[in-house]
Amino acid sequence: MSEYKVLTINPGSTSTKIALFEGENCLFSKNVSHDAKELDKFQSLPEQLPYRRDTILQLLNEAGVRLDDVDVFVGRGGGLLAMEGGTYEVTDLMLDHARNSANGVIHPAGLGPQLAREFAEQYGAKAMVVNPPDVDELQDLARMTGIKGVNRIIHLHALNLKETAIRHSKNVMNKKYEECNYVVCHIGGGISVSAHRKGKMIDGYDIVGGEGPMAPTRCGSISVANLLSYMKENNLDIADVKKLCTRTGGFVSHAGISDALELTVRAKNGDKYAEMLWNTMIYQIEKCIGSMAAVLHGEVDGILLGGGMVYNEDLVAQITEACSFIAPVTAYPGEFEMEAMAAGAIRVLNGEENLKVYTGKKVWDGFDWE
């Protein structure tokens, strides 16, 4: 592999992760924390850009890290319209859509393309994004619902899901990602369960919209009728329900916490409620894995588990016991997001993958008869 230098930038709600790679080697990494009160001073997300950029530059200067020989700056994507997976050039159109959250989802990840472009212009390099959260490769059968005119969309941890599958294919299967079928899970603050067939993520759950298993801050799939009754009984509006989907559901709703480690400690100390909550989440993950295996018609080369909660041995053991009859279960604790962004750019620079251009048009915009 050529020793290209890549700086990856991953903006989060209260932090910005950065990492400098030379080939596969990480030369420097840092998670820059931002004071919530400082971020509250900004009226909109785009207004945070100079503050985050200057914070990153100050950190790099203090560490003696130079950027004048960086080949590519890769930013976490966000706010973009649905697209195929892959590595994309940061164009003016992508910048406009990221700034204005074209898909309606306002998240700091949308600052990624903007920061990458600013650094790239300053240092005469390229700017890219790799498998942003807006990746949509659903097969048509996964799109229709039981309500005419309402079709499924998808929001998943596409970057980590795909990188986990790519690495497993290469290092374990000795094959290309495009030659394998997997059920891939990201189990962290949010939980993504997805079906991958021959290099495409053909099904999964809209975890922003409330689908899939319960997670530390997310309610997961529930009965529409039950939700309507709950809204009426508690005088909730649509905004309150959306918060249940991403911020106030799951562990937060039941136990008032979002820390999985704290929940498991409570369970070990005899808290039956915490124990049931923990096991219920795992049970729901197992059910979702089974459904994705059915999507693949049982032709599954592996069940891959990634994300922070995969460090928990009990979680891995339970899923392995329940699902190993489908395919071997392999745990990849943590995440490969920074490595994934660098690897995507390097694959393009090495000619292993084509650089894609963001069209600004949804990859799928309805059935032919609509």
TrEMBL record:
Coarse class of the protein's main subcellular location: cytoplasm
Q: Which Pfam families match?
A: Acetate_kinase
Matching SUPFAM superfamilies, A to Z? Actin-like ATPase domain (SSF53067)
Give me the gene this protein comes from: buk
Q: What is this protein called?
A: Probable butyrate kinase
Q: Which UniProt keywords apply?
A: ATP-binding, Cytoplasm, Kinase, Nucleotide-binding, Transferase
GO MF term list: butyrate kinase activity
Write out the catalysed reaction. Answer: butanoate + ATP = butanoyl phosphate + ADP
